[in-house]
Amino acid sequence: MGDHDDLRKFISDLAVVHGRVVLSSAREADWYVDLRRVTLHHQAAPLVGRVMLDLTADWEYEAVGGLTLGADPVALSMLHAAAPTGRALDAFVVRKAGKAHGLQRRIEGPEVAGRRVLAVEDTSTTGGSVLTAVEALREAGAEVVGVAVIVDRGAGDAVRAAGLPYKAAYTLADLGLVA
Length: 179
What we know:
The protein is α/β, with parallel strands linked by helices. It is built from six helices and eight strands; from the N terminus they run αββααβαβββαβαβ. The chain has helices at residues 3-15, 36-39, 44-55, 72-82, 128-139, 156-161, and strands at residues 16-22, 28-33, 63-67, 90-94, 107-108, 116-124, 143-152, 166-171. The two termini are 27 Å apart.
């Protein structure tokens, strides 16, 4: 099996939680995809980086990140996976709101102004979080080349409607789940 198949197995085994849950939309579901169980796992995190770099190999970007918390481990996995290949890839974190003290930055990490960046998320249903990150990145002067997620739960249309290319490593169908 390759990285893509190995990561799908980790997602199915660790991240898909069966049982009644209330979603942020207030709707109920019979399962939940908790990707932090994968993106923060010692064996799965390196796979996340390699799979996401492979997924976005045809996009040119210098930095990767998104809205904290879901994007943080994805971006760091990609940064670490890129390093051994000689690729210089920075990561950044977009805060939900600017800090009220210190440098009062909304985007932490290396400067994004004037740079081509990739917005990522672990999973997205509505696209709200990643589009919030995109807005902050554009306000900071970054050129957002696209959005990439590990698992798409339906955000593709909203992201594309915002004028951005969108890629997902896996769909719910890939995981044997129904929306």
